[in-house]
Amino acid sequence: MSPQQQTRADQPDNASPDYFGLNIPYMAFIGLVPEQLTTESARTRLPYRADLANSRGDVHGGALMSALDFTLSAAARAHEPGTGMATIDMTTHFLEPARGEVIIEARCLRIGASLAFCEGQALDLNGKLLATASATFKIVRRKRTGQQSV
Hints:
The chain is α+β, with helices and mostly antiparallel strands.
């Protein structure tokens, strides 16, 4: 079976949620739930799963960084619908261990002709700040050939 044909046993094929207009299998794999997207902010939720835990049972930092990266990029895409965002740089500060479900909130600070600058935070369900992140994204626009986008 090729890697493209493999699916998680607990998910039917093509069961990926709509990630604000995108199909992102990795976000579906980690269980990220898209909640809200406006030009003001993006919000997602990462339910706790034991298979995303580190050796102490806390949510693994890599899972948190993945969720932050997507949510920050979504905040930028809200200003440039139909574009993609390629992460150039992301800085994350872990302040507290994530021991349960995590809410990720992000906003776009500035969007220019080719770059977007965003910041966000990961919170527990009581509003406790778990991590902060800032990122720079390259705006990836579809190339046009004649009248069609490619």
